[in-house]
Design brief:
With 98 residues, the chain is mostly helical. Helix content is 82%, strand content 0%. It is elongated.
Amino acid sequence: MADKSEKQDMAWRAIGGLLGLITAWSAKKVIGFAWEKSTGKKPPADSESPDISLGEAIGYAVVMGVGMQVAQIVVARSARKRYDAWKSLKGAAKDATT
């Protein structure tokens, strides 16, 4: 039978996975919008297409890679802080009642 810490770890994994999906989708939309506004072109859909210059394909890959990673780090760290704070409050409240 799983103990309490294993259940909490599974809860965090589920929360983290869901946040990861939401963050990736949101970051892709925001970065794509910013790319379109700053360059005046839609983001390259196929970086291997000969219609897209090598510089544009590499630039978009760099911007997307860095942007996605920064978004993932910020969201994951913030969520972990909040989850740990909630967990400690829940533990303190339980200790106070016993």
